[in-house]
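Appendix B. Chain record.
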Amino acid sequence: MSPYNVTEFVLLGLTQNPHLQKILLVVFLFIFLFTVLANLLIVITISLSPTLSVPMYFFLTYLAFIDALYSSVTIPKMTIDLLNQRRTISWGGCLTQLFLAHFLGGSEIILLIVMAYDRYVAICKPLHYTTIMRQGLCQLLVGVTWIGGILHAMVQILFTMDLTFCGPNVIDHFMCDFFSVLEIACSHTYRLGIVVAANSGAMCLFIFFMLLISYIVILSSLKSHGSDGQRKALSTCGSHFTVVVLYFIPCIFSYTRPVTTYPGDKLVSVFYTILTPMLNPIIYTVRNTEVKNAMRSLLKRRVT
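Structure tokens predicted for this chain:
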């Protein structure tokens, strides 16, 4: 279903200050290039390095791939809008942006659960790790992340397609965020907003606490490991948990609250749509010696 009288939306963006827009253009363009190249470097490094052919890095490959795609959903459109006085997005483009954002975001949430399970098996059941985390299971779990992301995104899109727009078409945001779109709809949206908040908000909150408990269990089991094993496990789990916190705290803020928009929504959206995909490859390379060594080895092979 398309809106009655509205075929496109006007995005106000982050700021109306022309000087600040030029600065943001340069900053976000740099962030986008760095994010895509850094995440693709992780994908290539893990794919070509025999030393990284374990389930943990198999899942990290998909996390980096999702982050590269996720940053491409908003930043290119955002940088183009910073060059134009009138920033518009079609109804179809808005739906596409909403679908991709929720598809990739939902997939990443499920993948973080899978990565936590992988660390639990590796640390708490090391003797059975290769038996449990066999290749077939890893591929199945990745398939589940994609299917789960699609189902989550479809729910959001079905809700959005039932909205009608007959009044102002100005969205006070730099992207098609669900609550911002909901705010300008002329149909009754209160109950719909509660359903969506319960769906996404409850999902974020429940999974975050589930992951928090799982990492507490993992860390408590480290007492039986040697000092070297503890150090390596803490480094790996620390990286994973840092990514979990960076992703889930903005998610919880965005959806576990009354159905309305707040002045800080744009900054929170910048954090989880732009900064988090950029920080993830930094976290996993700076804290992971094996990935850094594999990157150096790969670069040496390419130079020679």
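Further analysis of this model is presented in Appendix C.
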